[in-house]
């Protein structure tokens, strides 16, 4: 369905076009409206209509100017010009800007729909041309393996569009009756180490080697197509399929293949891996379910029992795991680092992991979540101490490795090493930030408030200006002046209020506005909360009371 935008400052004309247009027949699903040239340009940029109908004389931006902009920014956009002025200059500019048609007001049904039909025909022709071009590109410029990989990924990610792609499924044998499809997932645990020692630090070479092992070990009747998961660096995906037997037979064969591949990868390259298998189904669109099942089995493998060996996850582990939260330990770790005691912080981290090690099980997926939580919590702590963002890694292996941190773990002991490395990195950052002299002085904030107390003052303004965290600024200001930032703003305003109220020529409303309060009632409430009396009550107090108040 197409989208049409009407740009005209006359509402009756826009309504007439809405009524007269044969939108259903023309396959137009949405008709948008704009009341002037500037608004029309904004809607063009925001909604990307397929066809535009526009007046030539409009407020804010005239049709001639808008046509020139459309010609530059949307050179292929069909434009139908409508004008009540039979002016040669308008017609000439419309022709120069490749306008599709030029209609004079008042418009009639036949002329309108003929012009619209011309626009739709042009759009259909372009669509056909693009479709043919895409088909040629697929045929000539894409290799069959890459096309199959993209197809399998779209099925696994549930983004496959059957209506937009009628032919690609034949590439994977989906036309064959009785063909089953399933997924195997392989996670390489020692990715960094094996890449450095065996593959010249090239993960693509490692993925190619794994794919070759899958291909070489595939049994007769079972086919297997493997590729690297673009979203998970450690993960390889293998889609298996077979015809001529039932689902249990293909699941058994694929399971044998996975165990053989895991063993062979370790023997050939020293790759330590964990595999998982998803059940097969006749419909290839069920590959997403099979992939999720396989991946759950990988991440359900108990790290406490792995001990640096390859393994295959046999079933999903649904047991509830109760481990102490790292969040509950952060206050003690933070206190240790702030006091310069890095060894105590490391001991607290070791004690926390020792508690985990004493549990009945600890899955690979639990380990991933622990490391992610750790990075998030320590980043928050680092920001509070004014550490620059560029010195903090993001959650995720690539970012951690970019800072020289270890990310491989194939046993709980190796996970402890990864944990210790991350803790040491943040300890150094926070202790350095705590010991380095600060060029920033909270007096700068105080001076700003003293001179701008009547403005809407936000702490985020200072955080962005001085590149320091909100929490650190608030803590620093209170340490130096004994007030929170918001408290100090309130104090300054209330001090000024007393002086202004002593001037009987000033009304309470005027004083409220001078202090930055837009609402007189809000000012009165704030004053009462601060001094125990309303502004009017304060003014009516005896002079000696006012002196005492000052």
TrEMBL record:
The keyword DNA-binding applies. Residues 3-120 form the Response regulatory domain. GO terms for biological process: phosphorelay signal transduction system. Keywords: Cytoplasm, DNA-binding, Phosphoprotein, Transcription, Transcription regulation, Two-component regulatory system. One of its GO terms (molecular function) is sequence-specific DNA binding. Residues 443-541 form the HTH araC/xylS-type domain. One of its GO terms (cellular component) is cytoplasm. InterPro entries: CheY-like_superfamily, Homeodomain-like_sf, HptR, HTH_AraC, HTH_AraC-typ_CS, Sig_transdc_resp-reg_receiver, Tscrpt_reg_AraC-type_HTH. The keyword Phosphoprotein applies. The modification 4-aspartylphosphate is found at residue 55. It is found in: Cytoplasm. PANTHER family: HISTIDINE KINASE-RELATED, TRANSCRIPTIONAL REGULATORY PROTEIN HPTR. This is Response regulator. It comes from Paenibacillus apis.
């Amino acid at each position: 369905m197409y989208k049409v935008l009407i740009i005209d400052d006359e509402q009756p004309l826009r309504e007439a076009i809405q009524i007269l247009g044969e939108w259903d027949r023309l396959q137009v699903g949405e008709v948008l409206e704009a009341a002037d040239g500037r608004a029309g340009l904004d809607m063009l940029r925001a909604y990307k209509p397929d066809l535009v109908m526009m007046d030539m004389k409009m407020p804010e931006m005239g049709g001639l100017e808008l046509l020139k902009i459309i010609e530059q920014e949307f050179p292929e956009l069909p434009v139908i010009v409508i004008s009540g002025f039979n002016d040669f200059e308008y017609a000439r500019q419309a022709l120069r800007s490749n306008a599709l048609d030029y209609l004079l007001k008042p418009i009639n049904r036949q002329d309108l729909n003929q012009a619209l039909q011309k626009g739709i025909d042009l759009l259909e022709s372009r669509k056909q041309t693009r479709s043919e071009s895409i088909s040629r590109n697929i045929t000539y410029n894409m290799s069959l393996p890459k096309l199959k990989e993209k197809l399998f990924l779209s099925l696994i990610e549930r983004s496959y569009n059957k209506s937009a792609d009628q032919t690609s499924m034949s590439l994977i044998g989906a036309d064959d009756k009785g063909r089953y499809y399933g997924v195997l997932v392989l996670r390489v645990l020692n990715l960094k180490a094996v890449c450095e020692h065996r593959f010249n630090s090239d993960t693509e070479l490692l993925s190619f080697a794994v794919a070759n092992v899958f291909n070489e070990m595939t049994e007769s009747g079972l086919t297997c197509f493997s590729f690297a998961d673009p979203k998970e660096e450690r993960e390889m995906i293998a889609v298996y399929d077979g015809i001529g037997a039932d689902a249990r037979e293909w699941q058994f064969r694929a399971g044998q293949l996975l165990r053989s591949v895991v063993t062979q990868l370790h023997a050939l390259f020293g790759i330590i891996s964990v595999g998982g298998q998803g059940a097969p189904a006749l419909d290839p669109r069920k590959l997403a379910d099979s992939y999720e099942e396989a991946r759950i089995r990988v991440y359900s493998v108990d790290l406490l029992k792995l001990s640096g060996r390859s393994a295959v996850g046999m079933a999903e582990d649904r047991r509830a795991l109760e481990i102490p939260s790292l969040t509950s330990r952060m206050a003690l770790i933070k206190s240790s680092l702030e006091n310069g005691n890095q060894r105590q912080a490391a001991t607290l981290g070791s004690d926390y992991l020792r508690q985990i090690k004493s549990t009945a099980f600890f899955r690979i997926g639990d380990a991933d979540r622990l490391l992610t939580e750790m990075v998030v919590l320590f980043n928050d702590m680092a920001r509070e101490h004014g550490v620059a963002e560029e010195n903090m890694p993001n959650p995720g292996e690539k970012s951690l490795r970019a800072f020289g941190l270890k990310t491989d773990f194939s046993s709980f002991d190796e996970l402890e090493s990864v944990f210790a490395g991350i803790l040491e990195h943040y300890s150094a950052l926070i202790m350095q930030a705590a010991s380095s002299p600060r060029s920033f002085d909270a007096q700068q904030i105080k001076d700003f408030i003293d001179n701008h107390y009547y403005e809407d003052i936000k702490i985020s303004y200072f955080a962005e200006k001085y590149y320091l965290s909100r929490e650190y600024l608030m803590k620093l200001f209170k340490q130096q002046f004994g007030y929170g930032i918001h408290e100090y703003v309130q104090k300054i305003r209330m001090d000024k209020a007393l002086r202004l109220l002593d001037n009987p020529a000033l009304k309470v409303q005027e004083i409220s506005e001078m202090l930055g309060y837009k609402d007189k009632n809000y000012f009165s409430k704030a004053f009462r909360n601060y001094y125990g009396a309303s502004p009017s009550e304060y003014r009516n107090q005896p002079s000696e009371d006012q002196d005492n108040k000052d």
